[in-house]
Write a structure and sequence with these properties.
There is one protein chain. The chain is an alpha/beta fold. The chain has one domain: Rossmann fold, CATH 3.40.50. About 40% of the residues lie in helices and about 20% in strands. Strand 3, helix 3 and strand 4 form a beta-alpha-beta unit. Helix 2 runs parallel beside helix 3. The radius of gyration is 14 Å and the shape is globular. The mean pLDDT is about 90. One of its GO terms (biological process) is phosphorelay signal transduction system. This is Response regulator. Keywords: Phosphoprotein.
Length: about 130
């Protein structure tokens, strides 16, 4: 029998309702979800993790660090980790994301959470949850 592998997803979102609903969608899709409310909190969490399989972050958040800073820090800690960056202000973010190799995936708001979960599953190599 094949062991079920659960991928660890770091979700960084300052809007509590969006974060709560997103967490449920990702968990229903088979992810272990770690949550951060700010970029600062996410960076601290990344420093304490032994691994993360994918990072999903909003760009604009309170605190010193935004979502692009989180993505950069995630790549410093885990160089090949897939990163999804969500924003409603894509124009000025595209230039900042050009430095990523492999590319960070930009998702423009508004987005559908089920599509975001599908993208996260595909990028992280997580098998489809067929419950």
């Amino acid at each position: 029998m094949k062991a079920h592998i659960v991928n660890r997803l770091l979700l960084v979102e300052d809007e509590s309702l969006v974060r709560m609903v997103a967490r449920e969608v990702f968990q229903d899709d088979g992810f272990e979800v770690l949550e951060a409310e700010t970029g600062d909190e996410a960076i601290q969490m990344l420093d304490d993790l032994d691994h993360v399989d994918i990072v999903v972050t909003d760009v604009r958040m309170p605190g010193r660090h935004d979502g692009v800073d989180v993505a950069l820090h995630a790549r410093l800690r885990f160089p090949r980790v897939p990163v999804i960056v969500a924003t409603g202000y894509a124009t000025n973010i595209r230039d900042r994301l050009r430095q990523f190799d492999p590319s960070a995936v930009l998702v423009e708001k508004p987005y559908r959470l089920d599509r975001l979960a599908e993208l996260a599953r595909a990028l992280s190599g997580s098998p489809q949850n067929n419950q």
